[in-house]
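DATA CLASS: polypeptide
GOAL: derive structure tokens

***
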Amino acid sequence: MKALKWVLVAALIAGCTQTKKPQTMHEQSTTEWNHARAAIYYSLAKQQYESTEFDKSRQSVDQAITLEPKNVPALLLSAKLFIEGNQLEAAERQLDQVRATDVKNAEADYLSGIVYQRWQMPALALTHYISACDKAPAELAYVMARAEMQVTLDRTSEALELLQSKVQYFDHSAAIRDAIGQLLVDQGKYAAAVDMFRQAALLADGDNSIHERLGLAMYYARQYHDAADTLGLLTSSPSYAKRADILLALGDAQMHLERWHDALNSFQAASEADPSSETWLKTAEAAMQLGDLHWSLISINKALAIDSTNSKAEIMLGYLRLKENRLADSLSAFIAANRLDPKDSLSVTMTGYVYEKRGMKKEAVECYNRALVLHPGDELAVQLLQKING
């Protein structure tokens, strides 16, 4: 019995290890013909996909897969078409087929990452993007997708570390440097962001969106000369001429450079593009620096007409009345500002300053002390209190 058992086992093993029966010449010819036809259909489907003729591309790629079911490029293109049509389950089935045929295929993992991202499953999407990166580390799209998912999962430091480790590898890529710059801005590292955006701008000459981020990073980094030059050039183009946020940043940079006329022009342009309380107050501030109190008052009134609860507008009005030596009106404005924002120490300090100007020392001291309670170490309140007590 033992001998018979081992004979059966040996026969079973031999049966398992037998090679497939060689193809006949006819079968081999049919396989080669199907392969050639599948390649033609795939090539046509690819052209149609790139021309966004998705329906035609679907018909062609299905023909290719029918002729050659394990044609990896055709399966990948089919998955892309399913993704375009938001048929995500069908796309993932195609991608599973690719992995079953070619376990080292990176694109299948990348496309699965897109599928899971669409399904709002970022952790699984990240797993697939990491796998794609491991299989094809030279593909920038895979690296960028991985970093994007890390940011989505609040793993920003990991995303930044990843991109910074790859920046020299992709030495001609503006996109990776732009992404690093944005992450550095999010972390408040504005000077480092400026360096990255500079490199990105050189590599992507003519991309205004990068120049926009560069100019704003310069402004946040207090590099006001460079910010004014970059943002000023940007606002000379039609697409940025009415961007109130860019005009406000440009005006602020010009204010720091004491270019009052330029700042007023920038703020007025911002006010025309977006007549908000903020833009009118900035206009009022620049006009006041130029001594144009009439235009400053008009701008303040416009700001208050838009938002009557804006405490900053009342503070600005208080400053203006102070310049006109209308102390009673100035005091009323500062008191109104404090009423609108009781936690603001500046309005309290300025109320005290007007009291002091009117010879009301006791009331002034009370205001300075109250400002220091609201904001311990407030420099203006400390200086005024020391002066009045000195």
Observations:
- Residues 208 and 234 are 7 Å apart (CA to CA).
- Residues 25-50 form the longest helix (26 residues).
